[in-house]
Target: AH domain-containing protein
Amino acid sequence: MMVEGENQRGETLIPSEGEGSGGQEAIHMKESVVEDNTEPDEGSRKPTTGPVVVTGNQKMPAIEKLEQVRKWSITTYKCTKQVLSEKMGRGSRTVDPELEARIDILRDDRRRYDHVTCLAQTLATQLAQVTQTQRTLGDAFTELSLKTPPLHVEFGLNGDTQRFLSKSGEVMVSAVNSFTSDMNTLVNKTIEDTMVNVKHYETDRVRCVHRYTATLPKLEQAQRTFQNQREKYEKSRNDLSVKLKLLEENKVKVLQHQLVLFHGAIASNSTSNHQHLELSLQQASTKLPMPGTEPPSWLEESSSPQ
Model:
């Protein structure tokens, strides 16, 4: 008699229905048990979908960033609102009258100095063009003096004069360029550096006007914030005051030196040109033939009696 069970090879033995009664042979059936322990290929795997879980370490920087953006947006909005309110005359303006007056003078000086610099640059450009024209004209006169013997003296004098004026103009252009270069440094670097302090001062001043008691939940926190902002405002005001004093002293020295040089260049150029022109006229009067000593013209010779 066979008992249902498994042999050592894992085969399942099932007894026949007529065993012991009909003498039928037992049917031995084998049932293979297959265990699939292989993993699917990576290409056949389907990506898992679902909610993304943010861990605590990743979550905190994002929250801090959002909080910083929120605070910055609130501060920017309040500062803009305060500035607009002041410009429209609806809000109180806490200022230092003396310092504000000096800032207004600085802004006006900067505008005027920039205008003078632009005019000087235009003058240098025009002088350079005139100088180039005088040089070309002088070369043309010299060439004509060589090719026109009867007018050799006249063309030669004009050629020398134009060449002298062109060289004098080059010196003048160099002097004007030096003036504009120093003026550009004063306006776009020295004064601009002070204007950066002015912007910081304006920002700290506007922030100092806020009443933080209405925006922060705790009075103590509001007081500390206000006090810190006031200290920043005081520091910006003191730094700006010192910067304005140094700028005023440096500005006077630079402008005084450059204005003297500019005037000297103009005067020297004008004087030297005037002297050269007078000398040229004297040379022309000695080289040119005296009236009445010129040979008779072809018309005069043809009309005279033989």
Summary: The CA atoms of residues 162 and 210 lie 69 Å apart.
